[in-house]
Amino acid sequence: MDSVSKVDPCINDNKVEDDDFHNSEERRLNFYSVLAIFVAVFGGILFGLDIGTASITSMNYFREAMGIPIQVSGHPDSSAVVKQISMFPIVFHITTLCGAPFAGRISDRYGRKPVILIAATLFCIGAFWQVLAGLVDRSFGWTSILLGRVVGGFGNGFILTIMPVYASELAPTKYRGMTITAFQFFITIGIFLMTLINYGLDKVSWGWRLGFGVQAIPCIFVMLMTSLFLPESPRYLVQRNRDEDAVLALHRLAKGSPNEEVVAKNELLRIQEEVMNTKMAGNGSWAELFQGSNFASLLCGASVAFSQQVTGINWFMNYATQLFSALGFAPFTFDLLLKMVNMLSTIVAICIVERIGRKSMIVHGTIAVILVYVVMFVVIEGTGVDITVSTPDSLERTVQTFFVAMIFVYQIIFAVTWGPIGFIIPAESFPTRVRGKGMSVAIVANMVGNIGFGDFGYQNLNAVSSMSITLIVVIVANVLFVFTTAVFLVPETKGVVLEDIPIVFGYCRGGDSLGCQ
Which single residue of 91, 170, 245, 493 has CA 20 to 30 Å from 237? Predict the structure, then answer.
């Protein structure tokens, strides 16, 4: 036994003694735990609402107020307009990138709840700032919009860093994937609701202001619920040597479960063991992220977060109205349909994520996404049609319709696979002591990909070249980054308790989580 233990770090001499709590029955959901998890995943709606505000940049009244040329149906925006409008998401995502590391540090030192409160407050201030843009000085309107997005972006960095982490720490293991997928589901709800609001207010002169203002409503709800009802994460409490508070939180979360006293005690023992092991390994510093299995977790989490954006999702999320308008379709109607498909498809992900597993979902999703882009390219090149130029030609209209249909196919694939998995894997990959910091690095990677590929790269490349060239770049990027990440960097973590995740990222027996039990 001793000789084997020396060569296999996955084998623990205390395994027999530990089996009573590593394999014990988990707590079940009760009203309090469901409420806490709901508030955590509901935070996703804030990010979703902001993504939905991208369609505001196509509203005629908004463009008039900001001095931006109105887009003519069937014609793309000029490259100058594309560059100006691209600043709308870019500024938000740059400040999200800047806010994420602060959120990680604060959450590891002061807890998850303070970060949630700061996030909702900043997001609310940013929303009202944009509502008031141009009222005092119209010439300052566009600058005021961007400044509001700076403030909201910092809040978003806090939201994306801590909300999935907090939800994963509160959820029982068998519901963890579904819980974080629900966070993505609320993002899609926010996107759809904002698109619906903009669709209904497109012809109202002040409609775009109301669109920005709506974002404050869920912010206030999150602030109130967090202050009054939410528990601090038991894992954070144990990390800060507040075991008595952790016991109280676990008992509230486990209330109503069979043998709730034993269930809460065993979960506390698992957390204490994991925290003790990580304390022995380091002091929870930033440097610790680059050591041992933590680096494997970091490489996986950051690569998955980055690759989620390389797939091209925010090319369609941010610029769908411009794309549909350039193709000669009703921009707000088709954008609304796209966001609805995105929302409904995410429900499928909630149902299958704990059955199929994380790795299988993104491997098959990646292959399907690449095939969609290849088919788009083959059809455009094979027919020789310039899909952004409107003529009475029936072949051109057929190809344009086909291209729009493939955008919807892509959206379904993404919503079922990369949409939720892009948050699940980073949120559950890191040990407790560096979970906040690790997630913040993953969000930074996500925003770098968002800016490089979603906000600027694909759309601006399409503006100065052709759709065929853009599709070639998209395909190559997906093969190089997305496929490589899905196949080679992601172990399966379905059904693994958070405290055993570091073992999985030791890639014991090929990274098979079952082999590490």
Answer: 493
HEC string of 82-133 equals HHHHHHHHHHHHHHHHHHHHHHHHHHHHHCHHHHHHHHHHHHHHHHHHHHCC
d(CA 14, CA 24): 16
By the 8 A CB rule, do 233 and 40 touch?
Answer: no
- Of the candidates 236, 431, 24, the residue with the CA atom closest to the CA atom of residue 249: 236
pLDDT by residue (tens digit) across 75-86?
667 778 878 888
Half-sphere CA count of 113, side-chain side, radius 13 A: 17
Question: For residue 262, what are the domain limits?
Answer: 21-516
> Which residues, at least 6 apart from 444, have a Cβ–Cβ distance to it below 8 Å?
97, 100, 101, 302
Query: Could you tell me the two tokens for 163?
Result: 């909300």
Coil vs helix vs strand at 167: helix
CA separation (Å) from 233 to 16, 22, 241, 268, 421?
A: 28, 20, 13, 12, 22
Question: Is 15 a member of any domain?
Answer: no
- The residue among 506, 477, 96 whose CA lies nearest residue 296 is 506
**183: closest CA among 307, 301, 46?**
46
What span, in angstroms and rounded, lies between the C-alpha atoms of 342 and 326?
A: 21
CATH at residue 173: 1.20.1250.20
State the Cα–Cα distance between residues 152 and 174, nearest whole angstrom.
34
